[in-house]
Amino acid sequence: MSLQKFIVRTLLKLPDGVLVKMSGGKPLAIDGRILDARAQLLAVQGARQPSITTLDPVTARSATKEGLALLDGALHPGVEVKELRVPGPGGPMDARLYLPAGTQGPLPGLVFFHFGGCVIGDLDTCHVFCSMIAGQAGIAVLNVAYRLAPEHKFPAQVEDAVAAYRWANGNAEDLRMIPGRIGVGGDSAGGYLSAVVAQAAKREGFAAPALQLLIYPVTDWGWKGGSMESCADVYPLTREIMDWFGAHYLNDPSEADDVRVSPMKEPDLSGLAPAIVVTAGFDPLRDQGEAYAQKLKAAGVSVEYRCENSLPHAFTAMTGVVPAAKQACEKIARDVGAALR
Questions:
Q1: Which of 187, 283, 287, 335 is flagged as catalytic?
Q2: Which of 132, 271, 277, 326 has the least C-beta neighbours within 10 A?
Q3: pTM of the prediction?
């Protein structure tokens, strides 16, 4: 463990009251919610660092990777990890397969896409979380690194996500997955891509996912008001960063009206895969995630929705320092297991 990582983790073991005093003296409250004390200290420290909007995408990827390494937990024990390459429309994609050790025969599966606004992130971004899902849910998880913008703009990421999911279905036996019991999931941009894959299955007629796991998903890249305003400056995702992501990802702002960019704009959500939708209380994306869950329900889709009120965006990468984030991730893993098994 690096000295910096040791200092961060030691500091975040202090009592809540001490952490709040170090973070301005009073708990951060927005929209009737109170931010977790450890997340609040991280927010204060994060605000002192240059925003990724001041960096070029390559530098932002490196800086984010280093920052997340300080916060993430340990791999779930008893999970085997295998490096793979998944064919895609732009060439092979790096991937990792997570399997509960000692299991025999095929398992339910989940194809997972990481967060990062379609601009940053890689397999390590959700490495620990994918191991938690595999271990606690007792399923096979395929973590796929799709192409990133601005080197590859829309619709490259959508095409990669659809291709990865369809490849997993076609190669279920090799992945030790049960055909027809394979879900799709992700957080933030990964949740957005998962929602798009579920819609594409219906639109294009390929095998529908058994589940769509949408964790604080982007569902409307043009969303205004509500939490986009009240949480506009909350660590680690701000409205400014969302605008920066969109500017790099989209070829033109008008593409935000495309259902492959904003799945919320699809008028008919009937017949889609059952969904687990989880949002974060301190997140500009909170309201649009909840709105998509409600729209799915109104269309007759089976939906389990909850908001982790005390947590910020990207809590899936904070399991090493924020106990509430670890608990939330463990609950998601159990829910996925129950849904797929």
A1: 283
A2: 271
A3: 0.96
Closest CA to 30 of 21, 40, 20: 40
Active site residue 188: yes
Strand spans (E) along 226-287: 275-282
Say whether 51 is catalytic: no
Domain count within the chain: 1
Rounded Cα distance, 303 and 270, in Å: 12
Q: What digits encode the pLDDT tens for the residues 213-249?
A: 999 999 999 999 999 999 999 999 999 999 999 999 9
Other C-beta atoms lying within 10 Å of the C-beta of residue 50: 10
Q: Could you give the CA distance from residue 135 to residue 206 in angstroms, rounded to a whole number?
A: 29
In the residue annotation, 283 being an active-site residue is answered as: yes
The CATH code of the domain that includes 198 is 3.40.50.1820
Question: Among 9-13, 96-100, 291-295, 332-336, which stretch is predicted with the lowest mean pLDDT?
Answer: 9-13
Which of 76, 114, 248, 313 does the annotation list as catalytic? Answer: 313
User: Using alpha carbons only, what angle is made at residue 83 by residues 60 and 322, rounded to the nearest 5 degrees?
Assistant: 50
Domain that holds residue 79: 75-340
Q: Are strands 79-86 and 93-100 parallel, antiparallel or unpaired?
A: antiparallel
